Amino acid sequence: MAERSAPVGVMDSGVGGLSVLAEIQRLLPNETLLYVADCGHVPYGEKSPDYIRERLRRIAGFFHEQGAKAMVLACNTATVAAVADLRELYPLWPLVGMEPAVKPAAAATRSGVVGVLATTGTLQSAKFAALLDRFANDVQVITQPCPGLVERIETGDLFSPALRQLLSSYVQPLLAAGCDTLILGCTHYPFLRPLLAEMVPADVAIIDTGAAVARQLQRLLGAHGLLADGPAGDTRFWTSADPQSLRKILPLLWHKSDSVQSFPL
Ligand code: DGL
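^ thats the input. predicted complex w/ D-glutamic acid below
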């Protein structure tokens, strides 16, 4: 039986999940957080579901060994490929996955046209098709895969001219098609909000799912009687690539650079 003071394991293919980690820490400041960035295998967006499932089994096993009381897949691509598999493997373990915010976007749009920026893997998945079937019958949804964005963000590039050009090539067609609501369906993309704000009219809503994931974690921990009563221990980071690279960009994407270790698998 896990204890309230046990940590929560949070993972992403790389640094994108830090956008979710920040929301979790804001909502649940008493929780001790562990973060695995699978930077040695990023991007997940262009990899096969089998490959991603295998990575997730390793990362989940690692969190389990660390005594994590719950796990958050702070990655849309990992969720569509692997959350069902993990739920089968660990039926009693609280697991939180995430999906593009189609439901709130369909409720919010006034033009009736919604754009989704996400990885190829997420947009091609059966889980995403089911999400559209369920929540997007009355609106037009235009999907836009965004290869190349994640790789740039992974290097700490949030503003270069090349990035601006690439992002604009993905966003402009959506705006031209009348989208008034843009879904950020990949956890890396919230780091592009400042750049997006320069290219998207102010009346276009930009929606991501980080805060909703934090609320879902809160609900789930509460239901299991596992909410920490604090104080939280230090956040610890692991990466499957060179720890030095993550150490270098953490201060840019995270408010402080806590310990970074090598992910053993
Ligand atoms: N951050 C991830 C997501 O939310 C995946 C990025 C990638 O590795 O392609 O989809």
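Strands lie at 8-12, 33-37, 70-73, 95-96, 113-118, 140-145, 181-184, 205-207, 236-239, 259-262.
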